[in-house]
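[Discussion] Sanity-checking designs against the backbone

I'm trying to build intuition for which residues belong where. Below is a structure token string of 78 positions. I'd appreciate it if someone posts a full sequence so I can compare it with mine line by line.
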């Protein structure tokens, strides 16, 4: 994959993942500031860990451990 495409896809992933993550977290009762912090951390870690092609097919099994780690870093019980 070309670097420009990979970078663009990762940027788009961070924006769309962050938005849907925050919406889901806030819908489950999480405070907006905590949801934003955990979701940003998760998106940032996922783009470090996975390639653009892996992010396209991201499964809950791939994302959950990263999200739990970010939640723990934010002081949330996991």
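Best answer:
Here's mine. Compare freely.
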């Amino acid at each position: 994959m070309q670097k420009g495409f990979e970078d663009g896809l990762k940027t788009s992933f961070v924006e769309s993942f962050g938005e849907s993550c925050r919406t889901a977290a806030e819908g489950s009762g999480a405070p907006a500031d905590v949801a934003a912090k955990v979701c940003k951390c998760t998106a940032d870690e996922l783009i470090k860990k996975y390639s653009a092609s892996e992010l396209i097919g991201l499964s809950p099994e791939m994302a959950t451990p990263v999200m739990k780690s970010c939640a723990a870093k934010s002081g949330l019980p996991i």
